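Reopening this ticket.

The earlier resolution said the output was attached, but the attachment link was broken on my side. Pasting everything inline this time so it's all in one place.
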Amino acid sequence: MFKILTLLLIISIPFLTGCVAAVATGAIVGSDMASDRRTTGIYIEDGSIELKTSTAIAEDSQLKASTSISVVSYNRVVLLVGQAPNESLRSHAADVVRETENIRRVHNEIRIAAPNSFLSGSSDSWITTKAKSLMLAEKDFASTNIKVITENGEIFLMGLVTKAEADKAIAIVRKIDGVERVVQIFEYIQ
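Inline output:
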């Protein structure tokens, strides 16, 4: 029942205005933190890592001019996704990110390509929303422990999960139209 209510709240946020939207978003983040397997400190640190690394990429003149890169951190493991025109800039982005404190590992999944179009980004958003919704609706499944990122039809799964949870998440996302590849960046727990 909680998952259904959370899903309804998430869906309704775009229709809320002002303080109501902020309170609703705060409630979701609070409930996410309560069920998250990361400690509160690591949860906050992940947000800090994302901010610092995204800023470092945006302030680097080479990367700013010709790449499209997104950064996600989960349990201090960083995922880089997006596009760079050549291997040199792809590697440079990872090097810039590695300079940030408290990162345990960097997964560089930046593809050598021109930046994605708006249409591709819309499709990716739809795939991510569909994946999260299907996981949330799954009975007896800890969907809040899995972070879903989609880039150009590739779906990336991060989180602290059991092997059974990972297998279930992969099975769910593989069935979604538009998913071309599933990349798992899980850390396994007992």
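Reporter confirms the inline version is readable. Residues 1-35 form one domain. The CA atoms of residues 83 and 184 lie 19 Å apart.
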